[in-house]
Amino acid sequence: MKSRSWAFCLAILAEVTVCAAGFAQDQAPHAARSNQNQPSSARQAIQWSQDRLSEFDAAIANLEQDLAKRQADVRAKADAALKELRDTREAYRVKAEEAAANARTWTDTQVADARKALDERSSAFQAKVGEYLDTVKADLATRQAVLEAEFEARQKAWQKSIDELRTEADKLAAKQRAGIDARIDGLKAQVDEAKVRVGRLQTASREAWDAVMRNYADAQQRFADTYNSIRKSIKDAIQ
């Protein structure tokens, strides 16, 4: 598979994380709100960066297993590529921890700048994954395995978001909560659908890969729209 196709696949996986950051940013206070609300919203706006590390770790662990199977003629170059990947992951971790530690006192502009920097480091990590796979001339099955490992970690972050919605819904009166619970159940069903879409990559041909990933991207957008709508409904009902 060409590097362009792999970059496309990784960009699709990244899309949900960007959307998750958008959900949090939608909750950020306007200037007219009190400063008391700002720290919580700021922390929420960058919390996604911590969840992202689990995806990076899943990719690295998968590639470490792959490296152990490689022949000596590519081992040195592959090992160097993997080291760069680990270094890129570490740079992301440092920036993410800095953002998490300082978000309480940062302005919205500083939070936005931190998120942009994290996005850039995330893109750099994805590019390094592609470089490793190109170095070892990875076949489709290997690329699928890496993608699925990242997606498994992504699912845990999705479930965390759904659990948080249910916790917020617990604050509502029974009459209000019934409709919200049904919508949260629908959101969970969308996650299950996305899992099925990724599973189809196991049997997808090279020609079908991009089509499957585009369908998966559509599922991600539906997840984003539904999540954002539910968050707003809960917020409006509590007020």
Structure write-up:
The chain is mostly helical and 239 residues long. It has one domain. Helix content is 85%, strand content 0%. It has helices at residues 3-26, 38-46, 48-68, 72-102, 108-135, 140-169, 174-199, 206-238.
Amount of helix = over 70%
Q: Mean of residue pLDDT? A: 78
How large a portion of the residues is in β-strands, by DSSP E? under 5%
C-alpha-based Rg, rounded: 19 Å
The coarse silhouette is: flat
Count of individual beta strands: 0
* Class based on secondary structure composition and strand pairing: mainly alpha
Supply the number of helical segments.
Answer: 8
* Unreliable stretches: 15-42
Q: What is the count of structural domains? A: 1
**Gap between N and C termini, in Å?**
51 Å
Major sheet details: none
What oligomerization state is this entry in?
A: single chain
SSE ordering: HHHHHHHH
Give a brief rundown of this model.
The protein has 239 residues and is mostly helical. It has 8 helices and no strands.
Keywords:
8 helices, flat, 239 residues
Topology of this protein?
Elements: H1 3-26, H2 38-46, H3 48-68, H4 72-102, H5 108-135, H6 140-169, H7 174-199, H8 206-238
Helix pairs in contact: 1-2, 1-5, 1-6, 1-8, 2-5, 3-4, 3-5, 3-6, 4-5, 6-7, 6-8, 7-8
